[in-house]
Specification:
By secondary structure, this protein is α+β, with helices and mostly antiparallel strands. The chain has helices spanning about 1-20, 20-35, 60-75, 100-115, 120-135, 180-185, 190-195, 280-305, 345-365, 365-370, 380-420, 440-465, 475-485, 500-545, and strands spanning about 85-90, 140-145, 150-155, 160-165, 170-180, 210-215, 235-245, 250-255, 260, 310, 325-330, 335, 435-440. A hairpin with a 5-residue loop joins strand 7 and strand 8 (about 250-255). The protein is flat and about 155 Å long.
Length: about 550
């Protein structure tokens, strides 16, 4: 049957792709052991409750990774601020009417409310994304509507097999899910699962089966194996759930208008699909630090509990150099340490260890996030440090913005729009295209630097304006009024549109003209009376003459 042929093709592709990345799994397992022990399940089975920290002697790497994820989370997705913005392509925000801006602000709130709802749980999921990005260089997030609720989930990289399209963007995903029969019955009906699930006993409910969720583009060769009734017009991606086993069974078909998986990568090497990470850069130092910690601890043990040399007549024992070891020799009765004091230079080992620990922290960008102890800094110095940090991270953050945030925001908007949860757009937007933006910290930092440069410009021009009062004629004050609120991060709704500003200025000019006319009328009357008085005096003078 066609469905079995498609299922077999998907299972075979998953097996082939997993075999091609075996070297990656070996690298990921090594990284997880020392940096993210809770995820060290690529090449070994972990028993629940097992000690996962047994490989770690120095905790610098896992702590640096946690700080990296926390700082990145606060920098990119601060829960105290909105990081979604709606706009109109080709039109500045200040030129839009109040109705259009009100519509966009309402949509922004709906998007943020949907993402931060308990079912979506976006913030805890993003934190796991940053941990995976820092450790493995690749993370996988899934967004979909399940039981009429938006849900975002991050999946372990070991469960996911990805593939790129011709544009080098991830457009194919096969995710495995091992779950109990009880959980499978909650997700699928007995009719879909087959005879094995029809009369299942209670003692077998906790036995587990392997399922695959495959998502692939409509132009993928796999789509040619789909039944004709499942080929929906306009669908960009197709999906299916498969129960693997003796007979691979397709349980459910589906389609998506956007790719539901987001796969951000920290940075890529040439010819590779999976990303590279800060942990991969730091792995030589991480291994060295753990070895050095072991050596230093053994040396410290020998100082605290040194091996001794003890005379014992004519008996001679092997040399025992471990802590507390006893070596028996012939000779004097004096008991002394086998290793003289000062031979073990623990302080030298500590200095080397601290240097390697610093290298690990630098690999995870910790010095960029943690401000060292220093005297009080000016606002200008703080802004400059923030700008330098953002510039150092900008290549990776731009990739995160492209592969994660922009797609997450766009898909969320489309889901809400298709569900009828967004307000009706105003008539002014007819024929215009909306643009969804992620509010990047890089853009915010650049705007702050623009505000700082404005302040410096006006300070310097103020001195020269004492010499030439026309110096400020070169400044477009309207543009300055638009840049200052943006530089300070003020809400866009407090800034009037250009149409409103023009109307306000026209009304003010009209009022000023009316007031000037009213002021000129008494003065004209007084001038006329004075003129008449002067004329009368002239007439009197002529008569008298």
């Amino acid at each position: 049957m066609a469905k079995n042929k498609l299922a077999d093709a998907i299972v075979q592709r998953e097996k082939t792709k997993r075999g091609e990345r075996s070297t990656w799994e070996s690298l990921w397992q090594s990284i997880a052991r020392y940096c993210l022990p809770n995820s060290a399940s690529f090449m070994e089975q972990i028993t629940p409750g097992q000690d996962r920290m047994r490989w770690i002697l120095d905790s610098t790497a896992p702590r640096s990774l946690e700080m990296f994820a926390s700082f990145l989370h606060t920098l990119l997705n601060n829960p105290a601020s909105e990081w979604v913005r709606l706009g109109v392509e080709g039109e500045p925000e200040l030129t839009l009417s109040s109705s259009v801006r009100g519509y966009m602000e309402t949509c922004q709130k709906h998007i943020m409310n949907a993402l931060t709802s308990p079912s979506a749980d976006i913030y805890s999921q993003l934190h796991q994304v940053y941990l995976d990005i820092g450790a493995f260089g690749t993370a996988v997030m899934f967004e979909d509507v399940i039981n009429s609720k938006l849900r975002c989930r991050v999946y372990h990289l070991d469960d996911c097999v990805i593939d790129e399209g011709e544009d080098e963007n991830i457009d194919s995903m096969i995710r495995q899910r091992t779950q109990s029969k009880r959980a499978a019955l909650q997700r699928f009906s007995k009719e879909k699962l087959g005879r094995e699930y029809e009369n299942i006993s209670d003692d077998k409910l906790n036995t587990k089966d392997k399922f695959l969720h495959a998502v692939f583009p409509a132009n993928d060769p796999l789509a040619e194996e789909l039944p004709m009734r499942q080929r929906l017009k306009g669908a960009a991606y197709y999906s299916c759930w498969i129960l693997t086993g003796h007979e691979n069974r397709i349980l459910e078909y589906g389609s998506y208008e956007e790719f539901p998986y987001f796969v951000p990568r920290w940075y890529k090497a040439r010819g590779e699909i999976y990303g590279r990470s800060p942990a991969m850069t730091a792995m030589p130092d991480i291994r060295m630090v753990n070895r050095m910690s072991d050596t230093i601890l053994r040396g410290a043990e020998k100082i605290v509990d040194p091996p001794l040399v003890i005379p014992d007549g004519s008996l001679v024992s092997p040399v025992r150099t471990y802590a507390g070891g006893l070596t028996f020799t012939e000779g004097a009765v004096k008991i002394e340490t086998l290793i003289p004091p000062g031979t073990s230079r623990i302080e030298t080992g500590n200095e080397l260890l601290i240097a390697r620990q610093g290298a690990i922290k630098e690999a995870f960008f910790t010095p960029l996030f943690v401000t060292p102890d220093s005297p009080v800094k000016t606002a200008t110095q703080v802004l400059q440090e923030v700008d330098e940090r953002n510039r150092a991270l900008s290549p990776m953050l731009v990739r995160m913005q492209t592969e994660l945030f922009s797609r997450l925001v766009t898909r969320t908007f489309n889901i809400l729009d298709r569900s009828g949860l967004l307000p009706k757009p105003p008539a002014e937007l007819s024929g215009k295209r909306l643009k969804l933006e992620y509010v990047s910290p890089l853009i915010a930092s650049q705007k702050q630097m623009d505000g700082l440069s404005l302040m410096r410009t006006f300070e310097q021009m103020g001195l020269w304006a004492q010499v030439d009062k026309g110096l400020f004629d070169w400044i477009d004050t309207d543009m300055v009024a638009q840049l200052i609120p943006q530089a300070n991060g003020a809400p866009a709704k407090i800034v009037q549109s250009s149409t409103t500003v023009r109307a306000t200025r026209a009304a003010r000019a009209k009022q000023e003209q009316a007031a000037m006319q009213a002021q000129m009328m008494p003065e004209a009357a007084q001038a006329g009376a004075a003129l008449m008085t002067a004329g009368a005096k002239v007439t009197q003078a002529n008569n008298a003459g």
